[in-house]
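Ticket #4471: structure output looks truncated?

Reporter: J.K.
Steps to reproduce: submitted the chain below (327 residues) through the standard prediction queue, then opened the result file.
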Amino acid sequence: MNKQELHACISKNQPNICQISAYQNGKEVYSDEWHEYKPEDTCHLMSATKSIVSLLVGIAIDQGFIRSVNDKVLDYFPDYQVKRGEKTIYDITIKHLLTMRAPYKCKGDPWTKVCSSDDWTSASLDLLGGRKGVTNEFNYQTVCLHILTGLLAKASGMTTVDYANHYLFRPLGVAEMTSYYAETAEEHKHFTIDKAPKKPVWFCDPLNIGTAGYGLCLSAKDLAKIGELCLNHGIHQGKQVISSQWLTEMVNPLETNIEKFQNMSYGYLWWILDTEKSTYAAIGNSGNVLYIDPKSEIVIAITAYFKPTVFDRIDFIETELKPFLFQ
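Returned output as attached by the reporter:
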């Protein structure tokens, strides 16, 4: 199969893929686009955003904005008024948020309650805690993870976009982000499901704090640059952008063989695909993936327009794309 045949095969069997960028040993070995996307166009990465936020937390620790993942969340919100009778929230740490072990007083994602408020961080904090205490049970959350970017804003004194541009995107030569806020629920929905190419934007709340669980829009080429940074122990062009210690810690599987999520393991907002092979990934709905294979020095970035319940993208990478690209 040649590149043209691969292009046609992907169009047929993985029809919502918009861009692919693949690297090995620091060199781009493959790049292609579908659906009239250009290389610089972006897609909404969905939950793959979470993994980028993990990098930003690591940088905040490197820079001294955050002392430790073991810091209590409320240490960074001294003005927050805890709800009457709530005690658990005082024990919740940044690490609980990063590992999806934080307890919440809600089932599922409280989109309406949080996203209709004027302050999404405070609304999410209102839902943090509960009578069961800190059980350390794996509890995957998207909306209320907004606490993390709210915390980053408090700690750094910068908006999410300004902070990410300054400490991550600009040093890597990634297209700089601008904030995007949806005035209405209809706009919010359109942002999520629209199939058209996007600009480099980060969805934000009314206070200009970027969403932590979703909302980041990147091209596959720029996403791959972030993968290369991870592969190179946090160094880009001789500069240490993020500590190698954080990169090692964030992919240490703290929750293993999660049945609900195809028996993958979880670190700090990154999915560990195979502990023996050391492969890991940022994964978002619709099959947006940043796939990293340290042993083979391979990075594969895939962006895709909205198509719910795409669960086969890692299989596609490992059984079809990798064998073709890296024979």
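Triage note (M.O.): checked the attachment and the full token line is present. The longest strand covers residues 17-24.
Status: closed, working as intended.
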